[in-house]
Amino acid sequence: MSDEKPRASNPLINKRKLEARRKFLRSVVLGAAVLGISSVGYIPVARAWNVRMRPPGALEEPDFLSSCIKCGQCVQVCPVAAIKLDDLDQGFGVGVPYIDSRTQACDFSCDAVQCILACPTGALVYKKPTFMPTRSEMVLPAPPILLAKEKSPEPTLNLKERSGLAVLVRPEKCLARQGKGIKGAARGQSFEGTMRFMEVDRWKPIPLRDHPYDLELCDLCVRTCPIKNAISMEIVKENGVEIHSPVVHEACVGCGVCEMVCPPDLAAIVVEARKGWSV
């Protein structure tokens, strides 16, 4: 048996080791925090890749983002509160106006498109300056006729380009294509979106839930569209069977009303931002 006694540990060495361990742990925690913050910062950048639906008359996205001063004037004048301001998690467009058509579409309740009139910088315009590029597929074939003004001396909107285009992205969800109707509120009693209905009040938008329907065949996207000849319900033949289906036409301005009123949980028809018309 050895008579050697274990050497006493050096308090100074132990203290240095403990301090080194603490510094290492602090570095790990700090590095993780920096990485986490960086990742959070990346989320807006990634989301910014997705183009938002902008208010009527918006310039092409790069020009719009460089022109908009985020003053919120367009938000203030919108009669249906369709225009919102992007939050911190929405990319480089923090504070920039956008429209979420599924939640609240622009139904042109203002008639004159007040957001364009209110914009102080030209980010929203009736007609682009000549030096700005115009995509031919965005140009409307004729001044859009607002059905609410159809009988007035000047029934058209002074819009030259569309904001986007309605697309039947989920045909399997479409009630008309299934031969089904709709009874009651289009989006249920909890939905808070509003619209102008000519038969109720020419100027005052009301909640969509307060305007119930009783239709043997759903055609809400057609009957609520504010623009004349933008969408129609037609009989199409698929796999040898004739069915009713909504068909979007070149007059579509991309207002988003069809998307807002579409009854299924996932809308059958949606408006794709900055999408142009292609034959």
Automatic annotation (TrEMBL):
GO terms for molecular function: 4 iron, 4 sulfur cluster binding; metal ion binding. CDD domains: DMSOR_beta_like. The chain crosses the membrane at residues 24-45. It comes from the Bacteria. Residues 58-88, 95-129, 244-272 form the 4Fe-4S ferredoxin-type domain. This is Ferredoxin-type protein NapG. InterPro entries: 4Fe4S_Fe-S-bd, 4Fe4S_Fe_S_CS, PSI_iron-sulfur_center, TAT_signal. Pfam families: Fer4_7. Keywords: 4Fe-4S, Iron, Iron-sulfur, Membrane, Metal-binding, Transmembrane, Transmembrane helix.
